[in-house]
Structures are given as structure tokens and as C-alpha cells.
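Sequence in, structure out.
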Amino acid sequence: MIRCAMDRHEPTSSERGDSKIGPMRTARSVIQPPPGWDIRPLESVNLICQKEKGMSAMPAALDGQSVGYYFAKILERYSYARHNLEFGGKHEIYNYFDGLKKGLEASAAVKTRPAVRVVASYGKGNWATIPWVSFLDSRETTSTQRGTYVVYLFREDGEGFYIKLAQGVTDTEHEFGAKAFDVLAKRAEELRSAIPELAEKGFDLSGRSDLGASHRKARMYEASTIAAKYYPANAIPQDATLFADLEHMLAAYEHLVTSGLTLQPEPDEPLALVGTWRTIKTDIDPAAEQIKEKGAWASAWSFRLKEEAQKHLKIPFTLYINGGGGQIVARARVSAFACAEDANGMKTPWPDITEPALHDITRFGPGVHEGIKTWLKISSIELISPFRANELPIATDLSTPANLLNQNAFGYVYEKLDVVPQAYEISPTVKHEVMEPEAEEEPLEFQWLVEETLLPASLLEKMVATLSGPSPQILLAGPPGTSKTWVAQRLALYMAGGRKSAIRTVQFHPSYTYESFIEGLRPKATSTGVQFELTPGIVLEVVNSMAAAGHLNDPKCPYVIILDEANRANLPKVLGELLFLFEYRNEAIRLQYTKEFKLPSNLLFIGTMNTADRSIRSIDAALRRRFDVFELTPNSEALTNYYSKTGQDSRAVADGLISLNAALAGDIDRHHTIGHSFFMKRDMSQDILRDIWERQLFPLIEEYFFDQPDLAGDYTIERFWPRNVS
């Protein structure tokens, strides 16, 4: 006879005197079930049990159980399920957590507090190492990643569980990195002093707890503890006691929330915005010129200001402008703003200071996210000495370090007062129809290219051969930090014979258009109104320059266009007729406005592509066929060569990089690894390595594992660099 797993009672590990349910090995290895348990898939066991006992579906069979029952079953079964069963579906563990959640929601402690919501989780996509059930007061937080809340946390080994008043750890870790432990502990101590009555109710106010795990996430949970009570698996109290403890904890939580003690004090500096505007350095002239003439300029954005931010922004406020690479390169002063009511966008509220082409439109394009949702009235704009965006104090209730530079949203920070403006004068807007000639440059040696890029000579020879052939287009693809842009720039300079004037770099982005790259009609204000003028894009500008210099189809004078981050644009839409011309350089084709156009044989294209953002396989097949793809992978040898020039020992750094990428490739794939350029520092030390990890690498790894946060928690600097690299 088959025993029904959910119905049979087996002694808990504590009752047996064991420390584990069975012999635990590594994740994904097999944990032996308790004696007498049927180890077939739960679905088959459930069906057999239902047939033998006339049972209905599993949820109905669990109805009416005590919350203590569910706590006991989770402790008893979770570890085995986590290591042996598929995550998805309505399996046994799902039913236990669902039953526990419903039982807690039905308690008087929760029902009398309408602002409190019960949330249970045992993972997202993968089993969590430490499952939990939380109580979130909407006046304080709506996520366990931030704020303060009450939570049940289950020990990883199944020996017991805690009820805690705790803090969200994710946002704090993003903001403070390694210092997050101290920040959480200090904040817990401050809040603990406001609820001494919990000690009289039997709660531990020492801040100590033991979740039976040593990984970083578990230690963060422990550091965040304000108050706690532990229930061992073999001594779970009756529901009346569990509910009484929950009432005491929720009452203390409510006191902290309603008294405002959980609110972080706002900095004295006013709230400000961060927006990404990669072409700011070329766009700033006409904007500044209009501000000088009319006193202001209307700037359109495709995303809304958050409602909460609108309440706290004090006119005038500052907009910091990310010019790319996380660098704040400019700032603007905003004297007014207006937001659309829905995704359809809105017309400009200030026609007199808006570019004529934007007067009567509500959208940048037909795409779902292309509605104009925010207008900013800019009263001043200036370039500033660049600094990293992460130096700005983040408004943590509105932004996190991970989304501060989101391409599709504003970031929210507090104003930085020590910003230094650059010397800057408004210059007239110039059409770059002809590139200015430079003094003659000496051709570069191939060995220079090898030394500059630190790539194998054999690989570079293949790139040069392609760019010297009949189809001179290549794509450099690889994960972040593999020096794609650097290699593209050095390769372009080598191919152009050292002539910097023969090279143009284009930063592709989602709003980049055919009109900017090939040709298009652009509005021009005249004395009689607005006229549309045919204006060449980057490609035609370069071809015009080649013709003016007498270099068309001259193999001795190559020109190069670098397409940086090519995969971020709608490539077929931007490239247009070039898809044909890339393959048939000797043939002419009609463009949208130009009757006949040929692509010169000596105009080369070098593209870069971040494979963590988009796979090569997802690029248009016709386009992919016209580019030779060279994969740039994390290169520990390049790191070794670099350090040999600076006299540093690279072994520890390189070994850690190899181990890190082996782990990432195993957990995800080779496209989501870490490049060597992150570590190319002239004075590498343990402190610098830790800064790199906390500010650049770990946020990137968390992005890789955005739907599997528990896996991200397994990645620590100590795991990959256990010894000092200095």
C-alpha cells in the first residue's frame, strides 16, 4: 500500500535527535527523505492518495487545518522538496504556503488592520533557500526589499522558524554595498529602543538570530532584525499562542509606522531628477541658444514623473543629465513641468518655446512607449565637469541604484551642491556636411594595434582582413567589460591610417532614426515660417566628406563609421537601404530622397553589441548575414598582459575572474559573464577591488538574476577572491 505523504506523520528531525532531515549535499543533489516516505513525484502520490482515500484535490484536503499544522509541514517537507522536486506548479509546498497565508489572513491580528497585507514566498523561478511569510503595512512599504515589516522566516535546515520585526535588505545592500550590514544593524538598534514592551512579551531584542545558513542573504536577514521570537520544530505552540505573538508584533510594528519612526529623515538638499540624454553634447547648443533668446526651452520625455515625486519636487529643481556610461555630464534647471494623464501622451503646454516639429504631436512614434508623457520647461542648461551618477544621493523611496539610470524612467536623487560647471559658450549650430581635414598622420603599425587592444594577433589579422575585403562590415559582440568600444576605436584608427578625421562614432539608442543616420527632412525656422529642409545624416555626411577630399573608393584612404551599441536601435529601420548596399557595393539604389546613391567601397563599418542585452540570434537575419561577427570574451590573458606593463601581480585577480565567469556561465550562459576591463586599474588593491564589486559587478550580477534573487545572493566577493589581491 502506498503511504500518503501529506497524511502520514513522521518524526521531525528534532524528535529523532538528528540535525538534518537526511544527508544534505550540494544544491541539486539528492536529500534522502525520511524513512517510509514515498519519493515518487508528488503529482503521482497525490493521485494515488486521492484514489485510495476518496480525497478531493489537495487544497480542499488541507482546508480547516491549524496554522501550526502548516508551519510544521513546511519545516518537515521544504528542504526535501527544494532539492528534489520541480519548482513550478501547485505541488505540496504550494498548498502548505497557501494554507498558511489564508490562515494568517483570517486571524484577528490581521483582519483588524486593513493596511496590512500578507505575502508568502518560497522563491521566484527557483526554490528560495529561506522561505518566508511577511506582513506589509502599505503606509510603510509594499515590498520586502525595502522598509520595515513583520515576517516569519524558516531556518534553512528545517529546525525551526522565527517571527521577526525586520527591515528590507535588498535596497539597502544596493545603496551601501558591504556597509549594508552596519547600516541595517544601526537602524535596528534605533527602532528597537522604541518598542521595549516586546521584551516583556517574551521577544528577543538582542538583534541576534540564526537561520542555519552562512550565505550573504541569510546574514543580511539576521543583521536586519529588530525583534524576534524563535519556535523550534519540535515545540510549535498552539494557534492561540501563535496568534497572540503575531498580535504583539503587529502592534509594535503599527506603533513604529504611525509614529513616523520608520521614516528615514529626508536630506536637506531638494529632490532632483536624473534623465539619460546621450546626445546632449551635440544638442546643447540649440537648446541653450533658444533659452538665451526666449528665456526657456520645452523638453519632451517619453516617461512620466512618479506621482509621489510630483508632490515633493519644488520648483525650480535640477535635472541631471546622464550622457552615457553612467556619467553625469550636464545639468538643467526646470522651472515647470506637465505630465500626461495616460500612455497616449500630450501636446506641449508651451508652444512658444517648443520646437516647431513638436508643436502638434503627442507621440514620438507609434510604439507603445513612445507617447510624450512629460514636458519640462528648462530655464537654463550647462555642461559640467563629469562625475559618476552613483555619487548622487539617491531618494531611496523613489529610486534604487539598479534603476537610477533606467532608459525608460527618470531617476530620483537629492541635489548635489558641489558640481563644477565647465567653461562653456553658446556656439552657432553647424551642419557637418564636410569633415574638417587634419594634419597628415603617420600610418600605424600592426604591432601598435596588438599592444593597444591586448588581443591575439591572429584574431586581429582576421578582423583587418574582413575590413580590407569586399564586404567591410564587422560586429564586435560580447558581455559587458570586454573592451568592445575600445577595440572598435583602436581598430578604426588603424584602418584609417591614423587619420582621426576619417572616423565617425555613432551611439545607437532606441530613439535613433533613419533620418539621423541616412537622410531626412528637418524643420528650419525662417522669416516666413517653418520650412522643412533635406538634411544629410551621418552616412551621407561622411560620403560627402570623402567626395570633397577626392577619396571616394580610394583603397589607400579608408573611412570608418563606428556603430556603438548597435543592438540598442531598431537596426532595419535605421539602416534602411544600407542592408542592400552592404552586400552590393558596386550598385546604386534610390534612397528616400536621393535619386541614386552608392556606398563607397572604402567606407568601413565597425559595430559593437552587448550580448547581455540581446543575443546575436535575435538580430535581423538579413543584417546578421552582412556582418562578420567576432566574439570578444572575458580575457584573463589580456588582464595579465595589462598588469605586466604596470608591474602588478595579476594572478589573484585573474583567477577570481575565471572562477566568477565559470559560475555565471554555469548558472546562466556565456553571454552573461563579466569582462576583464572592469579590473584594468593601474593601482589594483583589495579596497579598489571591493569598490569595483560593490558599485559595478554585483549590481550587474543582480540584474542578470533579476528573477532569481536567491542565486544572486550566492555571489560574494569572498567566494571568488578569498585572499588579498594587493
